[in-house]
Amino acid sequence: MTSEEAAVFEADPDSTAAIALRRADDAGKVVGLRVPDLDCWRPVVERVAAAAAPGRAA
Questions:
Q1: Is 8 helix (H, G, I), strand (E, B) or coil?
Q2: Distance CA 5, CA 21 (A)
Q3: What angle do CA 26, 31, 34 make, to 5 degrees?
Q4: Confidence label for 36 from pLDDT (cuts 50, 70 and 90)
């Protein structure tokens, strides 16, 4: 990134979350790493999806 691009990125209120996501993505690229199957994550995904649903109760 250029200095200007970095400044724009850092001004974004979601920049911290974007960095955390990038770090988690990088950390997940470990050859041979054993992880739980997707069913383990279903409750988390459902909570996130419900929270992001249009018209959800606040």
A1: helix
A2: 19
A3: 95
A4: confident
- pTM equals 0.52
DSSP letter at 58?
-
Strands (E), the chain: none
The DSSP letter of residue 37 is -
Tokens for 18? 């974007």
Structure tokens that stand for 4 in this block: 């200007």
> Which amino acid type is present at position 32?
G
Token representation of residue 31? 């050859």
CA distances 3 to 6, 14, 16, 31, 56, Å, are: 5, 18, 17, 34, 39
Distance CA 2, CA 49 (A): 34
